[in-house]
């Protein structure tokens, strides 16, 4: 059986991002206006709202980068309920079940306001314009890159997450991590044939073994500094033992059984901006509670013991 995100071989194929607008300092649009003729929205502090789920690794990294760069006052945040129904991400954590800024009950309403014909899956993170109520972008790989570049005039900190001299090597590593780890766990979990699952499983652990070896002599992926690559790897690693090991059948071993990756992940967790944005309860409730095909009972495991993250 195939779906919109399943190939004929039973492989999970992630849907493309529908909205790919950019907020840039060189937009020719004035304050309060929409995008210019090149699709560039004007850079304005307080205008755009980042919609995220604490459960979602793709959205999580946007919130981490926002915090590391000190963009909290420039970009507001809306948090959706970790449990989705057939209508998608809900603002049921807010009073009255509506986001207090956007005034909507479901993120899908912003999608419909932007493209009434859209029928794909509604995803987080989404950057929504509070003036028009439209989605600027749900292009999660680009959002964090833009925070470090186009949003720099509004940032209050400059940790150099994208050092120019490292970009060629970093971009290549980020792509490998995406294909085999970030998306690789999903390719394991949502595979519908044994062949597709085993291929994804082999690639996942081969890449983790390479990263384990890389970190044998490095504090972070590129030495002593935290970069964009570390953010992208962290959001998968922090969910690995709690969700992916069991729920997505990524069970060759646990993260805690890979000494270098485990040390690395815990150091990031205890770095301001990382662990303080992790909510294991919402992570577990989302994955185990919304994938009925993988967990029909909906039971959320009580473990694992999370105390080691801060030990």
Automatic annotation (TrEMBL):
<feature type="region of interest" description="Disordered">
    <location>
        <begin position="1"/>
        <end position="40"/>
    </location>
</feature>
<dbReference type="InterPro" id="IPR040079">
    <property type="entry name" value="Glutathione_S-Trfase"/>
</dbReference>
<dbReference type="Pfam" id="PF13409">
    <property type="entry name" value="GST_N_2"/>
</dbReference>
<dbReference type="InterPro" id="IPR036249">
    <property type="entry name" value="Thioredoxin-like_sf"/>
</dbReference>
<protein>
    <submittedName>
        <fullName>Glutathione S-transferase family protein</fullName>
        <ecNumber>1.8.5.-</ecNumber>
    </submittedName>
</protein>
<dbReference type="InterPro" id="IPR047047">
    <property type="entry name" value="GST_Omega-like_C"/>
</dbReference>
<dbReference type="InterPro" id="IPR036282">
    <property type="entry name" value="Glutathione-S-Trfase_C_sf"/>
</dbReference>
<keyword id="KW-0560">Oxidoreductase</keyword>
<dbReference type="Pfam" id="PF13410">
    <property type="entry name" value="GST_C_2"/>
</dbReference>
<dbReference type="InterPro" id="IPR016639">
    <property type="entry name" value="GST_Omega/GSH"/>
</dbReference>
<dbReference type="InterPro" id="IPR004045">
    <property type="entry name" value="Glutathione_S-Trfase_N"/>
</dbReference>
<feature type="domain" description="GST C-terminal">
    <location>
        <begin position="163"/>
        <end position="287"/>
    </location>
</feature>
<dbReference type="InterPro" id="IPR010987">
    <property type="entry name" value="Glutathione-S-Trfase_C-like"/>
</dbReference>
<dbReference type="GO" id="GO:0016491">
    <property type="term" value="F:oxidoreductase activity"/>
</dbReference>
């Amino acid at each position: 059986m195939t779906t919109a995100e399943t190939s004929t071989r039973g492989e999970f194929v992630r849907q493309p991002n529908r909205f790919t607008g950019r907020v840039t300092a060189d937009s020719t649009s004035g304050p309060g206006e929409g995008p210019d003729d090149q699709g560039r929205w004007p850079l304005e502090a307080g205008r755009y709202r980042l919609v995220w789920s604490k459960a979602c690794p793709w959205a999580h990294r946007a919130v981490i980068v926002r915090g590391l760069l000190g963009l909290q006052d420039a970009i507001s945040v809306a948090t959706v309920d970790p449990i989705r129904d057939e209508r998608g991400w809900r603002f049921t954590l807010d009073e009255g079940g509506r986001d207090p800024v956007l005034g909507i009950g479901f993120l899908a309403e912003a999608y419909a306001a932007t493209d009434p014909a859209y029928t794909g899956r509604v995803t987080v993170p989404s950057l929504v314009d509070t003036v028009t109520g439209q989605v600027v972008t749900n292009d999660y790989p680009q959002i964090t890159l833009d925070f470090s570049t186009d949003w720099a005039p509004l940032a209050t900190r400059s940790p150099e997450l994208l050092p120019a001299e490292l970009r060629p090597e970093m971009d290549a590593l980020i792509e490998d991590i995406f294909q085999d780890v970030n998306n690789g766990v999903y390719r394991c979990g949502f595979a519908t044939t044994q062949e597709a699952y085993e291929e994804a499983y082999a690639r996942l652990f081969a890449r983790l073994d390479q990263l384990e070896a890389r970190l044998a002599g490095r504090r972070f992926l590129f030495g002593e500094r935290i970069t964009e690559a570390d953010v992208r790897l962290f959001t998968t690693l922090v969910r690995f033992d709690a969700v992916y090991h069991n729920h997505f059948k990524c069970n060759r071993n646990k993260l805690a059984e890979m000494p270098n990756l485990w040390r690395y992940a815990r150091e990031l967790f205890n770095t301001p901006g990382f662990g303080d944005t992790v909510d294991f309860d919402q992570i577990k409730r989302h994955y185990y509670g919304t994938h009925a095909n993988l967990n029909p009972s909906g039971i959320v495991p009580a473990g694992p013991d999370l105390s080691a993250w801060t030990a």
